[in-house]
């Protein structure tokens, strides 16, 4: 196998300015609906990129849990690597890789912590096992074995066997307020279509085509 020989053409669709909504959130919702309709695996999965104090970027995949004009919402352990990095630097980048549709969306923005009420409401909506898992995992920290994790999960399951499971003090969420959003559609001969929305001081969005 030669890595340099692995390639394909992108021929599914094209993207022109007149096809885009003036509002990138509306445009994103339309593309997300199409990704769901296409039965893509994990259509709400997004790569979240943060940067540590030394300038080292890190990435991980999380699920988009809410979207409105305010921004893109996800939840996480607030003692995790991503949360610790966001505490030092709120700049963040999201990437939605919808490969089967030959599309991707990149969101550049600022992460703002959600209110305790919003976090609690979402936490209580999660399956019970997911709530218990949140209590079980000291996210991003070393652990000696999978068995240790499973034993702790069993302990937490027994501890919270009755009644509602409370919100952990170390669990929260973020709303990513975007200032730039790029929509990418694959094109033949690597002549892809790329459009960048940029938020202006007036709150309106400008749109420009980028070279592929």
TrEMBL record:
GO biological process: pyridoxine biosynthetic process
Pfam families referenced in this protein's UniProt entry, alphabetically: PNP_phzG_C (PF10590), PNPOx_N (PF01243)
Free-text comment on the cofactor: Binds 1 FMN per subunit.
Residues annotated as domain Pyridoxine 5'-phosphate oxidase dimerisation C-terminal: 171-212
Reaction it catalyzes: pyridoxamine 5'-phosphate + O2 + H2O = pyridoxal 5'-phosphate + H2O2 + NH4(+); pyridoxine 5'-phosphate + O2 = pyridoxal 5'-phosphate + H2O2
Highest taxon in the source lineage: Bacteria
EC number: 1.4.3.5
Positions of FMN binding: 60-65, 75-76, 81-82, 104, 139-140, 184, 194
Residue positions binding substrate: 7-10, 65, 122, 126, 130, 190-192
Cofactor: FMN
Record domain Pyridoxamine 5'-phosphate oxidase N-terminal: where: 32-157
Entry keyword set: Flavoprotein, FMN, Oxidoreductase, Pyridoxine biosynthesis
Family: Belongs to the pyridoxamine 5'-phosphate oxidase family.
Complexes and interactors: Homodimer.
Protein name stated in the entry: Pyridoxine/pyridoxamine 5'-phosphate oxidase
